[in-house]
Amino acid sequence: MLLNRRISVWYFVRGIKSQIILISIFAISIGLVDMHPTFQKISLPLSIPALVGTAVSLLLAFRTAQSYERWWEARTVWGAIVNDSRNFLRQLIQFVPESNKNVISEFCDRQIVWVYALGEALRKQRFSPRVQAYLNLHDINAMNTPNALLDEHSKAIKHLTSEGLISEFKQVQLNETLARLCDSMGKCERIKNTVFPRSYSLLVHTLIYVFAAILPFGLEDSQLVVEITMTILIPILFIAIEKTAILMQDPFENTPVDTPMTSLAQTIEISILQMIGEMEVPKKETTELYYEM
């Protein structure tokens, strides 16, 4: 997630480098064609390129709004995961007798592993050594590892009830919190697996090139350099806006605008370890980059 620090301009330029080159070649070609005697007599009212530019602007505004909505939903869901993780351990501390602190520690360890595993699964990364060691130790092998860990939570809660350590009413409360964690996981998976329609990007790109193609015919032919410069700059601005939307629309892709799931997992780990009275609590890692993961 981007922080209030200087953002690397080159990171963004590298993302649209190919489009800049393509637009520049296209604009120079159209500008030279416009200077040909055959096309010099062709003159379009400037209102026509303005109309196409307005259409592109409206489409980009919608695209950016939808992308930000996906990004913000992802961040809101992970905020709920932070809260529900704390509430889950708080309930266990209240419900489980103090003589069974080892049971609470097991839930704590499993919940910490779950948040790290969920973030790594959403980014489609290999599980970290810590997560993999826990999975190997408890012989957990499933296609959806985070869901399997929640199943282990559910089995442990059922065991507590059958042993008489918690009442059925407390079991219901714990299951409700567990259900909210499962809902949050499902929302993350929905965002991850829902692809933004490719046809929308194709339409925007087509209109941008149509705009670049007709703009020189609405400008003065006497100023070729200005004509080509404007034909390059304005479409590049449109492409830059679209690139911003593309970066935001997938908040689990391990990029600078990614939801900071690792950082949030560290926050959860520190919080619940402090709640159970653990003395060796890891410090929150800081980064010198302009974003945190």
Overview features:
293 residues, mainly alpha, 11 helices
Brief account:
With 293 residues, the chain is mostly helical. 72% of the residues lie in helices and 0% in strands.
What does this protein look like?
This protein is mainly α. The chain has one domain (about 10-275). It contains 11 helices and no strands. Helix 4 (about 45-95) packs antiparallel against helix 5 (about 100-120), helix 4 (about 45-95) runs antiparallel to helix 9 (about 200-215) and helix 4 (about 45-95) packs parallel to helix 10 (about 225-250). It is elongated. The mean pLDDT is about 85.
Q: What's the topology here?
A:
Elements: H1 9-15, H2 17-35, H3 37-40, H4 47-95, H5 101-122, H6 129-137, H7 145-162, H8 168-193, H9 198-214, H10 224-249, H11 261-275
- Which sheet architecture does the biggest sheet show? none
Structural class: mainly alpha
The percent range for strand residues is under 5%
Q: Residue-averaged pLDDT, rounded?
A: 86
Please state the overall shape, judged from the principal axes of the Cα atoms.
elongated
In total, the number of strands is 0
State the oligomer.
single chain
Question: Which percent bin holds the helix content?
Answer: over 70%
DSSP summary: helix tally: 11
N-to-C CA distance: 6 Å
What is the N-to-C order of secondary-structure elements (H for helix, E for strand)?
HHHHHHHHHHH
- How many domains? The number is 1
| Uncertain segments | none
Radius of gyration: 27 Å
